[in-house]
From TrEMBL, chain A:
The modification 4-aspartylphosphate is found at D63. This is Response regulator receiver domain-containing protein. It comes from the Bacteria. The keyword Calcium does not apply. One of its GO terms (biological process) is phosphorelay signal transduction system. InterPro entries: CheY-like_superfamily (IPR011006), Sig_transdc_resp-reg_receiver (IPR001789), TCS_response_regulator (IPR052893). Keywords: Phosphoprotein. The keyword Phosphoprotein applies. Residues 9-130 form the Response regulatory domain. Pfam families: Response_reg.
Automatic annotation (TrEMBL), chain B:
PANTHER family: BACTERIOPHYTOCHROME (PTHR42878:SF15), TWO-COMPONENT HISTIDINE KINASE (PTHR42878). It comes from Colwellia chukchiensis. This is histidine kinase. It catalyses: ATP + protein L-histidine = ADP + protein N-phospho-L-histidine. GO terms for molecular function: phosphorelay response regulator activity; phosphorelay sensor kinase activity; protein kinase activator activity. Residues 145-237 form the CHASE domain. Residues 379-588 form the Histidine kinase domain. InterPro entries: BphY/WalK/GraS-like, CHASE_dom, CHASE_sf, HATPase_C_sf, HATPase_dom, His_kinase_dom, HisK_dim/P_dom, HisK_dim/P_sf. One of its GO terms (cellular component) is membrane. PROSITE patterns: CHASE (PS50839), HIS_KIN (PS50109). Its main location: membrane.
Length: 141, 594
C-alpha cells in the first residue's frame, strides 16, 4: 500500500446544470477533492475525451437524455473507439425504461442509476463513487 | 384497449350472412323453379282433366244420339207390330176404311212424330193381280199397281195413311226395286221387322234419302218356325216410310245435341247435318270424331259423329288458363319478394358497411387522440419532473447555504415552496401512472387476497390503531394493477379517516362471471352527490393542505378496473363509512377485454 494512487477524475456528461451542480455540491459535502470535468452532451463529451481534456484515470457519469447526441449514441461511439472502449461508465438518468436499462448494460456499463432513487443531491451516488474509487482499480489510458 | 378498427370474427360471420342473404341463391331459384313446375303441372293436369271430361262428354253425347235413334226406331217398330196384331186379331185383312180408322186411332202426328205414314203391303202372286186390283177398286176406282217389273210376286202398297201426303205411294209395287224388295223378303223370311237400304221415297218431292220399315204378318197356317213355312204363310207387311232428315230432326233436334251427325248405310248416304238446315252448327275442325256401327233391323247404319260448334263453345274452359296465370303471378310475386328481400339485405349491408366505415374512422381518430393524450400526459409529467426536481434542489441549497442569514419568515416560505413542489411531484407521479394504464396488459395470476391486502396495508403509513380484516381467499387477477388499486383505496380510507382509530374490512364474493370485492371503512363517508366528483381526475374532497393527495387515486383505480372490463363504484350514506365496490371479470373475460 505504498503506492500512492493517482486521483481519479469524474467526467460528468450532463445537460442539466442543476444536476451537475448537485454532484459538485455532494462532492464538497463528502469532502471529495477529485476533479470534476463536465461536458453538456455526447458530442462535447466525445470531443473532450479524444482531445485529452480528461486526465486519466477517470470514470464517466453519463446522462441518457441529452441534446445533439444522447447517452446511448455516446456509448455506441465510445465502445467503437479502441482508445476509449475500456472506459468505466455509469449511467445517471431519469429514464426508468426497461429498454434503456437493457441497451445500456449491452454496452458494458458499470452501473445504472435513476436520479429519483439516489437521494437528495445524488448523495448515494457520490458515496458509491467514493467507495468505488477507494477499492476499484481502473485502467490507465 | 379494444381495437375498433378490426372487426371481430363474429361480426365478420354476421356480415357474411348478410352478404349471403343479399344474393339470390340456388335455393331461391329452386323454389322459383319448383313453383314454375307446380304451375305447369297443375295447368297440365287441369287441362288433361278437362280434355278427359269433354272426351267423356262427347262419348256420352254420341251414345245418347245412337240410343235416341234406336229408341225411336223401337217405337216405330212397336207401331208396325201393333198393326200386325190388329190384322191378326181381325183374322182377315182390313179394308181401306178399316185401315183408315185404325191409323187414325194411332194418332200418328202426335204419338209417332217424324213417321211419314203407316200402311199395309200385301204379298200377291202374279195370277192374283187382277182379282186383287178389282177388289181394291171397289173402294178406290183409281187403284192400280205400278210400276211393272219381272218378278214372280208383287208387293203393292195397298193402304197408306195419311193418304194425302202419300198419294204417290198408293199402288206402288215395292218389288220393282232391289232395296225395297230384298228387305221385304228378308222380313218375310225372318219374321222380324226390317229396314230397307237407303232409297228415295216416291212421295218425297225433295228426293232426299229415306227408307221403309217393314213388319211381316202371316196367315194362320204358319205353324212352323222355318223360312219355307214363312214363305208359304206370308200375307203381307205393315210398313212405314221415313224421310231421313225428318226422322233425325224429330228425334234429335239440333238444339238438344252438341254433335254433328252423318249416317251412312253400307257406304250409301243416309243423312248428313250439312244437308239439313242446321249446317251452321257444324265445326269444320271438330274437337272429337267417332264412328259407330249400329245394327238396326237387318241394316248396319254407320254413325259418323263429330263435335259441333256448340260443343266447342260449351267445352271451352278457362280453368286451366286461370291456373296457369295464377301460377305465373305467384311466381312473379315470389321473384319480386326474393328480389325485394335481397335488395333490403343489400341495403342493410351497405348501411352497415357505411356505419362501420364511419365508426372505424371515428374509432381510429379516437384511438389516435387517446394515444396522443396519453403520450402528452406521459411526456408532460415526465418532462415536468426534471425542472421540478431542480427547483426542489435549489430550494434545499438555499436553505442550507443561507440558514444563518435568512429571516424565519423566508425559511417558512422556503418550506412552503418545498411542500408545494413535493405535492406537484406526487401529482406528476400519479398522472404518469394514470397515463400508463393500458400501455401494458398484465396477465392474470393466482394470489391470496388476504396476503396481498395485508402487505399493502402494512406498507402504508397508518396510525397504529388502524386495523384491517380480510379473509383468506385465492383469486386470479392481474396482480400488479390490482395492487395499485388496493393501495389507492386503502390509502384513501386511512388518509380521509376522521377518527384516531379505524377499521377497514375487505370482503370477497364470487358473482356470476365477476369477482366482487368490497372495501369498507368506518370513516366519515362520502355524500352521494359527491360520488361522481370523487371519481374524477384531480378531485379531492378535502383541502390538499389538510389531507395531502393528488386527487388521482380513485380516478386511477377506476380507469384501471375499467381497462380490464370491470367497474368501481362508491357506496356511502355520507355519515358512517364508505364502501368501495370493485367488480372484476373472472380471468377469461378479463383477457378478452384486455
Amino acid at each position: 500500500m505504498t503506492v500512492e494512487k493517482k486521483e481519479v477524475s469524474l467526467f460528468l456528461i450532463e445537460d442539466d446544470d442543476v444536476d451537475a451542480m448537485s454532484i459538485t455540491r455532494s462532492f464538497e459535502k463528502m469532502k471529495l477533492s477529485n476533479p470534476i470535468i463536465r461536458a453538456h452532451d455526447g458530442v462535447e463529451g466525445l470531443q473532450m475525451l479524444r482531445s485529452g481534456a480528461v486526465p486519466s484515470p477517470f470514470i464517466i457519469l453519463l446522462d441518457l437524455q441529452m441534446p445533439r447526441m444522447n447517452g446511448l449514441e455516446f456509448l455506441e461511439q465510445v465502445r467503437a473507439d479502441e482508445n476509449l472502449a475500456q472506459s468505466t461508465i455509469f449511467i445517471l438518468t431519469t429514464s426508468k425504461s426497461d429498454e434503456d436499462i437493457a441497451a445500456s448494460y449491452q454496452k458494458n456499463i458499470a452501473g445504472y442509476f435513476i436520479k429519483d432513487q439516489v437521494g437528495e443531491e445524488f448523495l448515494d451516488i457520490v458515496k458509491m463513487l467514493k467507495g468505488y474509487w477507494k477499492i476499484a482499480l481502473l485502467p490507465e489510458q | 384497449m379494444i381495437d375498433f378498427a378490426k372487426p371481430s370474427k363474429d361480426i365478420n360471420i354476421e356480415r357474411q350472412k348478410l352478404i349471403d342473404a343479399s344474393q339470390l341463391h340456388g335455393i331461391h331459384w329452386l323454389v322459383l323453379a319448383l313453383s314454375a313446375v307446380l304451375t305447369l303441372g297443375a295447368w297440365y293436369l287441369a287441362n288433361e282433366q278437362h280434355n278427359k271430361n269433354i272426351a267423356e262428354r262427347f262419348q256420352r253425347e254420341s251414345l245418347q244420339v245412337i240410343e235416341l235413334v234406336k229408341e225411336r226406331m223401337l217405337v216405330y217398330e212397336n207401331a208396325l207390330w201393333g198393326a200386325v196384331a190388329h190384322i191378326d186379331a181381325n183374322g182377315n185383312a182390313p179394308n181401306n176404311r178399316q185401315w183408315q180408322r185404325y191409323s187414325n186411332s194411332l194418332q200418328l202426328e202426335k204419338k209417332y212424330p217424324s213417321i211419314n205414314g203407316i200402311g199395309i203391303i200385301f204379298n200377291i202372286q202374279r195370277e192374283q193381280q187382277d182379282s186383287f186390283i178389282r177388289a181394291q177398286q171397289v173402294d178406290r176406282p183409281n187403284f192400280t199397281i205400278h210400276p211393272q217389273h219381272n218378278e214372280a210376286e208383287l208387293w203393292p202398297i195397298t193402304y197408306i195413311e195419311p193418304v194425302l201426303s202419300n198419294q204417290q205411294a198408293v199402288g206402288l209395287d215395292v218389288a220393282f226395286e232391289n232395296n225395297r224388295y230384298s228387305a221385304i223378303k228378308q222380313a218375310r223370311d225372318t219374321g222380324l221387322a226390317q229396314l230397307t237400304g237407303p232409297i228415295t221415297l216416291v212421295q218425297d218431292a225433295k228426293k232426299t234419302p229415306g227408307f221403309l220399315f217393314y213388319a211381316p204378318f202371316y196367315n194362320n197356317l204358319l205353324i212352323e218356325d222355318t223360312v219355307a213355312a214363312r214363305r208359304q204363310a206370308i200375307t203381307g207387311v205393315s210398313y212405314a216410310p221415313f224421310i231421313m232428315y225428318k226422322l233425325i230432326s224429330g228425334t234429335l233436334a239440333v238444339d238438344r245435341r252438341h254433335v254433328t251427325i252423318e249416317i251412312t248405310d253400307n257406304g250409301q248416304h243416309l243423312y248428313h247435318d250439312k244437308d239439313n238446315q242446321d249446317a251452321d252448327m257444324i265445326d269444320p275442325k271438330p274437337l272429337f270424331k267417332d264412328k259407330f256401327k249400329v245394327n238396326l233391323y237387318g241394316r248396319v247404319w254407320e254413325f259418323n259423329i263429330s263435335s259441333n260448334l256448340e260443343f266447342r263453345a260449351d267445352s271451352a274452359s278457362n280453368k286451366p288458363y286461370f291456373i296457369l296465370i295464377a301460377g305465373v303471378i305467384i311466381n312473379l310475386l315470389l321473384f319480386a319478394l326474393f328480389s325485394f328481400l335481397s335488395k333490403a339485405n343489400q341495403q342493410a349491408l351497405a348501411y352497415a358497411d357505411r356505419v362501420t366505415r364511419e365508426l372505424k374512422i371515428n374509432s381510429q381518430r379516437l384511438k389516435k387522440s387517446n394515444q396522443d393524450l396519453e403520450q402528452f400526459a406521459y411526456v408532460a409529467s415526465h418532462d415536468l419532473k426534471s425542472p421540478l426536481n431542480a427547483i426542489r434542489k435549489l430550494v434545499g441549497w438555499l436553505n442550507e447555504d443561507c440558514e444563518d442569514i435568512l429571516p424565519d419568515s423566508s425559511k417558512e416560505h422556503l418550506a412552503l415552496l418545498n411542500n408545494r413542489s413535493e405535492r406537484m411531484n406526487n401529482l406528476l407521479d400519479d398522472l404518469l401512472d394514470y397515463s400508463r394504464i393500458g400501455r401494458k396488459d398484465h396477465q392474470a395470476n393466482e394470489f391470496d387476497l388476504a396476503e396481498i391486502a395485508q402487505a399493502i396495508f402494512n406498507l402504508l403509513d397508518h396510525p397504529a390503531n388502524f386495523t384491517l380484516s380480510v379473509e383468506k381467499q385465492t383469486i386470479c387477477l392481474p396482480q400488479i394493477p390490482f395492487e395499485i388499486i388496493l393501495r389507492n383505496v386503502l390509502s384513501n380510507a386511512i388518509k380521509h379517516h376522521d377518527k384516531a382509530s379505524g377499521h377497514i374490512k375487505i370482503r370477497y364474493q364470487m358473482d356470476p362471471g365477476m369477482h366482487h370485492i368490497s372495501i369498507e371503512d368506518d370513516g366519515p363517508g362520502i355524500p352521494s352527490e359527491l360520488f361522481d366528483k370523487a371519481l374524477e381526475m384531480f378531485q379531492t374532497l378535502q383541502p390538499r393542505d389538510k389531507v395531502e393527495g393528488s386527487g388521482m387515486g380513485l380516478a386511477l383505480s377506476k380507469k384501471t378496473v375499467e381497462h380490464y372490463g370491470g367497474s368501481l363504484t362508491i357506496n356511502s350514506d355520507g355519515i358512517n363509512g364508505t364502501t368501495i365496490v370493485i367488480l372484476w371479470p373472472i380471468a377469461n373475460n378479463a383477457k378478452q377485454n384486455a
